[in-house]
Write a structure and sequence with these properties.
Blueprint: H1 2-22, H2 35-62, E1 66-69, H3 71-86, H4 91-96, H5 108-124, E2 126-129
Antiparallel strand pairs: 1-2
Helix pairs in contact: 1-3, 1-5, 2-5, 3-5
Amino acid sequence: MIRKVAIIVSSFLMVLGLVILSWGFRDLPIDERPEWMAWQMVLWPVIVLGLAEVSRLVGYVKKGLSVRADRFKIITHGLPALVVAMAPAGTFTNLFGPQSLWSLLDFPTAKVMAAVWLAFTLWTAWEVDTP
């Protein structure tokens, strides 16, 4: 139970960290980005981090160990990261107002960091079960 609470808290802290780090870029203009750019921003880190992780996971399977996905971690970390990375520019500003800290999640820096967060979550959510 404590582990699940820690994962939930760390997910919230990751979103808060995106807001805090984006604070320094708040005066830059936000341009709308094309849809292909959003997908590229998400897929690139997933693929790059996956290149290293797949070989590690395949090695475990070859040794006779079973590998399973930690769905709780994927949902609590992956879903918020996906929402931040893929939300159109201005979504958080419209939802929470322009003076809200959450509006900083509309900045490109937060979106790039969320894409990397998503990739890291997807590849570190694999658990090795020992026999």
